[in-house]
């Protein structure tokens, strides 16, 4: 809300902040997200086969906080009706969830479709639609059938055809009702975290080879699925389809580090976006050069970074209907100095590209070790993407805050508010066409290598109760109000804000402008 003081202040010091219209554009959509392995449980029910996350969590408990696993998780396989009720209570326009490949196609191949698996997603989709909530379906959120992993998983070029068969199955079963599809969730995180240091399933350490094969094959698999939808399903169902990319915002520690910072962006945003979203297609050329040099230094006779044929470049180019971005946090970048230990999550920048990552001291820490709060990062990342790939339609497919628990969650509310404010600035000041926003997550769930330690939920889940009791947090009430008002101009529960250098906070601004007013009059 613009106070009189703020208006006067704006007239004196012109900041972009002054001109935010707190309402969202007409048609702007709000949603909330989850994923199959993180919430469903029922890992061995009926004819479902093992996924790489079932396998990894059972065979490598030491790599997961509390030796946790998703065997039961939120038990959404049983409590899906409650999930729909929660989504409905929030008043969101859409619910983003994922389909488990090994639940639907236990062999990994379309020779056999699980009747129970098929019905589970039918019930979920129909239940949402009955309440007027659109299903936004992720086809792959990291839970590959273990049987396909045994054949090489995402490093085997044939995985692109296996994924294509899976895609045909899900479009055929659910395409009549699902109008927005995500092929693959965060190929960056799944490839880099899996193969760089083995911290995610399948836990194979192959940073010089495996990571890049996974990079190439996830994008090709996405492209084939997009083309299948475009050629055979779009005219019948009129839906949209894209992939979701995860973005860290990278910014230079100081001037002089801009070039290496841009390389860091190309090594994450670029390596997973350029082949699909750029006008010319193919890999970013700065990365091709840097990684070729790197392979040479590592003693390989040629670059380990896989080349693309002309056909592959054409196959991938333009395979999107929108740009979907997951965004949480930022890093500062500079060139590494000799002998330095690298801050690497999730990109193996350090050893590869001589990049040193850090966090600014003013960015508040959170319950997750990798997560620092820097709301302006989301706006700057959107601007970077538009500059590189054009005036696309953007959706924020994930954004949220990790706490260590409790129903009173002012930090999460502040995070959601501040990020939404930055998105409004991107729309109004920078002309970025953001059309939707999604909170991660609907409820606390299995948070990969953090187990159940960090909690992203708008709803708290009691993992000790047999029914996995779900209770709305203060942030759930806040989000509901924002959606209902279609505006950020809603009261927030009273709390003491964290000091922050990354945004102007209203109380200090009000104080400052009051002093100014006293001086003026
Ligand atoms: C399924 O897994 C649970 C452990 O999560 C185990 O107790 C149960 O016996 C298994 N059920 C079947 C049918 O194998
Ligand atoms: C944003 O994208 C939507 C969907 O493609 C389109 O209808 C709308 O006109 C675009 N808005 C702007 C301001 O470009």
TrEMBL record:
It holds the Pfam family Glyco_hydro_1. The keyword Signal applies. GO terms for molecular function: beta-glucosidase activity. Residues 1-18 form the signal peptide. The keyword Hydrolase applies. One of its GO terms (biological process) is carbohydrate metabolic process. InterPro entries: GH, GH_1_N_CS, Glyco_hydro_1. Homodimer. This is Myrosinase 1-like. It comes from Manduca sexta.
């Amino acid at each position: 809300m613009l106070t009189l003081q703020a208006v006067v202040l704006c007239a004196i010091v012109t900041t972009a902040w002054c001109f935010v219209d707190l309402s969202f554009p007409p048609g702007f959509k709000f949603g909330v997200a989850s994923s199959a392995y993180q919430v469903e449980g029922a890992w061995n029910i009926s004819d479902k086969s093992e996924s790489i996350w079932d396998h990894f969590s059972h065979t490598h408990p030491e790599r997961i906080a509390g030796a946790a696993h998703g065997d039961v998780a939120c038990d959404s396989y049983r409590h899906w009706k409650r999930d729909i009720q929660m989504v409905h209570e929030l008043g969101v326009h859409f619910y983003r969830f994922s389909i488990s490949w090994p639940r639907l196609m236990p062999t990994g191949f379309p020779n056999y479709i699980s009747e129970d698996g098929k019905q589970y997603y039918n019930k979920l989709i129909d239940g949402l639609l009955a309440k007027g909530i659109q299903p936004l379906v992720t086809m792959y959120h990291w839970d590959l059938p273990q049987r396909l992993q045994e054949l090489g998983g995402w490093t085997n070029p044939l995985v692109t055809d296996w994924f294509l068969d899976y895609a045909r199955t899900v479009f055929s079963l659910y395409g009549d009702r699902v109008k927005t599809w995500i092929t693959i969730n965060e190929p960056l995180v799944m490839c880099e975290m899996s193969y760089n240091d083995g911290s995610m399933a399948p836990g194979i350490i192959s940073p010089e080879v495996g990571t890049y094969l996974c990079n190439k094959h996830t994008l090709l698999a996405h492209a084939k699925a997009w083309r299948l939808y475009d050629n055979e399903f779009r005219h019948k169902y009129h839906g949209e389809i894209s992939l979701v990319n995860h973005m860290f915002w990278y910014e230079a520690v100081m001037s002089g580090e801009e070039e290496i910072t841009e390389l860091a962006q190309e090594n994450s945003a670029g390596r997973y976006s350029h082949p699909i979203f750029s006008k010319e297609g193919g890999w970013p050329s700065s990365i091709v050069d840097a990684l070729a040099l790197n392979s040479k230094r590592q003693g390989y006779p040629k670059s380990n970074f896989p080349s693309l044929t002309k056909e592959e470049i054409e196959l991938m180019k333009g395979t999107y209907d929108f740009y979907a971005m997951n965004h949480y946090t930022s890093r500062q970048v500079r060139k590494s100095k000799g002998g330095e230990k690298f801050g690497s999550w999730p990109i193996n920048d350090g050893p590869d590209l001589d990049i040193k990552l850090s966090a600014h001291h003013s960015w508040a820490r959170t319950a997750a070790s990798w997560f620092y709060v820097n709301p302006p990062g989301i706006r700057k990342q959107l601007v970077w993407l538009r500059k590189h790939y054009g005036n696309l339609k953007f959706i924020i497919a994930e954004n949220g805050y990790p706490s260590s628990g409790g129903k009173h969650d002012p930090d999460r509310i502040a995070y959601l508010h501040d990020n939404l404010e930055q998105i409004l600035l991107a729309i109004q000041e920078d002309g970025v066409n953001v059309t939707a926003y999604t909170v991660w997550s609907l409820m606390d769930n299995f948070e990969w290598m953090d187990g159940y330690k960090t909690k992203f939920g708008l709803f708290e889940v009691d993992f000790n109760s047999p029914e996995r009791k779900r209770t709305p947090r203060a942030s759930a009430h806040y989000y509901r109000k924002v959606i209902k008002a279609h505006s950020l101009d809603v009261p927030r529960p009273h709390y003491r804000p964290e000091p922050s250098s990354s945004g102007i906070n209203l109380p200090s601004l009000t104080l400052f402008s009051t002093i100014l007013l006293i001086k003026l009059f």
